[in-house]
């Protein structure tokens, strides 16, 4: 772990030695002990302290973290490797001081790493930023707050619960122009000839069958269906109804879903006597009436109708 470098003072140095009048006296005599104590030892002590601080400053070994972590002074100029989706709190900016810097890398393949400032310190002008998997940045301290530098743009992501394809924009890279630009979401709308963003049709939109910009899903299709013995289904504006009776030689049945326009009816029966024939006596947008012209039907009559 590294520590930000601070100045080293030379202590023990005699900055006010006795005056030397040039006379040969004991007080003016140069001895090893005097030089060592007043010059050599202070320089040696200062150089050793400088060396120790340089060694600490140069120790940039990455520091892996699996749990939430708050950076300290000893993390200066090092890299914090977040190996899971955790929160990294940057140490108090006033305590860390201007010039303090630490790199944070999201080293996992899933989740997000959230970077926040301690004690209300801002990060890039906001309370927090997030790092997607395999993204990272240097976080620099100016003594009051932090800002992110390098390794991609760090942004705060929030969900847009009401996207507007006619107004919302995303950042893209224009390869032919050689620079980034903003593009409307509508620029990426799908069509019959171009792949892109497409909105899913609701059950009601699927039922009308007139929308050419939305995609039909199985759920939207079956949202307009009743798959029962007596039931119906919409295929776009086309309405199909079916119903049956397990009874007798005559009767009336209602369509599961009323038609606006009834276009046709198919009918049949099972277990009839030889020569039996089924006749539709009347039909409407809401139902059908029938009887058996000849013979008897001892099991089932069924009807299948189509329209809109």
Protein topology:
Elements: H1 32-58, E1 63-65, E2 69-70, E3 79-82, E4 87-90, H2 93-96, E5 101-106, E6 113-117, E7 128-131, E8 136-141, E9 146-149, E10 169-174, E11 179-184, E12 199-200, H3 203-208, E13 214-215, H4 218-222, E14 225-226, E15 231-235, E16 238-245, E17 250-254, E18 262-272, E19 277-283, E20 287-294, E21 297-307
Parallel strand pairs: 1-3, 2-4, 3-5, 4-6, 12-13
Antiparallel strand pairs: 5-8, 6-7, 8-9, 10-11, 14-15, 15-16, 16-21, 17-20, 18-21, 19-20
Fold and architecture overview:
- There is one protein chain.
- With 308 residues, this protein is mainly beta.
- It folds into 4 domains: 1-13 and 24-59, no CATH class; 63-149, Sandwich (Jelly Rolls), CATH 2.60.120; 161-197, no CATH class; 225-307, Immunoglobulin-like (Sandwich), CATH 2.60.40.
- 14% of the residues lie in helices and 36% in strands.
- It has 4 helices and 21 strands.
- The chain has helices spanning 32-58, 93-96, 203-208, 218-222; strands spanning 63-65, 69-70, 79-82, 87-90, 101-106, 113-117, 128-131, 136-141, 146-149, 169-174, 179-184, 199-200, 214-215, 225-226, 231-235, 238-245, 250-254, 262-272, 277-283, 287-294, 297-307.
- The strands form 6 sheets. A 5-stranded mixed sheet has the order 1-3-5-8-9, with no helix packed on it.
- β19 (277-283) and β20 (287-294) form a beta hairpin.
- The longest helix has 27 residues, at 32-58.
Short recap of the structure:
With 308 residues, the chain is mostly beta strands. The protein is 14% helix and 36% strand.
């Amino acid at each position: 772990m590294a520590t930000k470098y601070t100045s080293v003072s030379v202590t023990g140095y005699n900055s006010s030695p006795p005056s030397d009048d040039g006379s040969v006296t004991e007080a003016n005599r140069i001895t090893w002990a005097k030089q060592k104590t007043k010059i050599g030892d202070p320089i040696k002590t200062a150089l050793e302290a400088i060396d120790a601080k340089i060694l600490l400053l140069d120790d940039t070994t990455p520091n892996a973290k699996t749990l939430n972590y708050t950076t300290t002074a000893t993390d200066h100029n090092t890299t914090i490797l977040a190996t899971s989706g955790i929160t990294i709190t940057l140490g108090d900016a006033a305590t860390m001081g201007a010039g303090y810097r630490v790199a944070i890398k999201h080293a996992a393949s899933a989740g997000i790493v959230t970077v926040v400032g301690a004690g209300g310190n801002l990060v890039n002008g906001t309370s927090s930023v997030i790092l997607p998997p395999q993204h990272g940045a240097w976080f620099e301290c100016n003594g009051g707050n932090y800002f992110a530098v390098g390794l991609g743009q760090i942004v705060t992501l929030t969900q847009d619960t009401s996207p507007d394809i006619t107004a919302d924009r995303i950042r893209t890279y224009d390869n032919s122009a050689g620079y980034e630009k903003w593009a409307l979401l509508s620029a990426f709308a799908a069509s019959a000839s171009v792949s892109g963003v497409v909105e899913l049709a609701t059950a009601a939109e699927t039922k009308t069958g007139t929308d050419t910009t939305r995609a039909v899903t199985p759920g939207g299709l079956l949202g307009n269906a009743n798959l029962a013995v007596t039931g119906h289904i919409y295929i776009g504006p086309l309405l199909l109804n079916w119903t049956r009776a397990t009874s007798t030689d005559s009767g009336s049945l209602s369509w599961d879903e009323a038609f606006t326009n009834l276009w046709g009816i198919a009918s049949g029966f099972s277990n009839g006597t030889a020569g039996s024939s089924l006749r539709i006596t009347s039909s409407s947008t809401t139902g059908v009436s029938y009887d058996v012209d000849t013979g008897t039907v001892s099991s089932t009559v069924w009807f299948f109708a189509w329209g809109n």
